[in-house]
Amino acid sequence: MPRELIVLECTECNQRNYDCDKNKRLHPSRVEYKKYCRFCRKHTVHKESK
């Protein structure tokens, strides 16, 4: 199964906001997305956490 479930964590407040999946074959390293954080109330960079 090439898709893996991941959790995205805000880099500013360290809250875990999003659950999603990624294609491990296309993105073998950790991914980063710019998404909205409801705790910071702005768009921030979210990194993949363990």
From TrEMBL:
Q: Which InterPro entries match?
A: Ribosomal_bL33, Ribosomal_bL33_sf, Ribosomal_zn-bd
Query: Under the GO molecular function aspect, what terms does this record hold?
Result: structural constituent of ribosome
| Any one GO BP annotation for this protein | translation
What is a single Pfam family found in this protein's UniProt entry? Ribosomal_L33
Give the record's GO CC terms: cytoplasm; ribonucleoprotein complex; ribosome
Keywords (A to Z) from UniProt: Ribonucleoprotein, Ribosomal protein
Similarity comment: Belongs to the bacterial ribosomal protein bL33 family.
HAMAP family assigned to the protein according to its UniProt record, in alphabetical order:
Ribosomal_bL33 (MF_00294)
Q: Any idea what this protein is called?
A: Large ribosomal subunit protein bL33
Q: Gene encoding this polypeptide?
A: rpmG
